[in-house]
Amino acid sequence: MPVLEELRHRGHEVVLRTLASELPEMHQLGFQAEAIATEIEALPMDDWRARTRLGRLKRAVTIQLERAPLDCRDLDAAIAATKPDALIVDMLALGAVSAAEAWGGPWASSCPFPLPIPSRSGPAPGFGFRPARGAIGRARDRAFESIGTAGFDRLAGSRLSEVRATVGLSPLKHARDVYSQPPLHLYMTAEPFEYPQRDWPESVLMVGPCNWEGAGEPPEGLEDVEEPLVLITTSSEFQDDGRLAEVALEALRSEELHPVATVPSAAIETLSPAVRGAALPYAPHMPVLRRSACAITHGGMGATQKALALGVPVLVVPFGRDQFEVARRVETAHAGTSLSSRRLNPRRLRAKVREAIGCRPGAERIARAFAAAGGARAAADAVERRLFA
Question: Has this prediction a pTM greater than 0.70?
Answer without folding.
Answer: yes
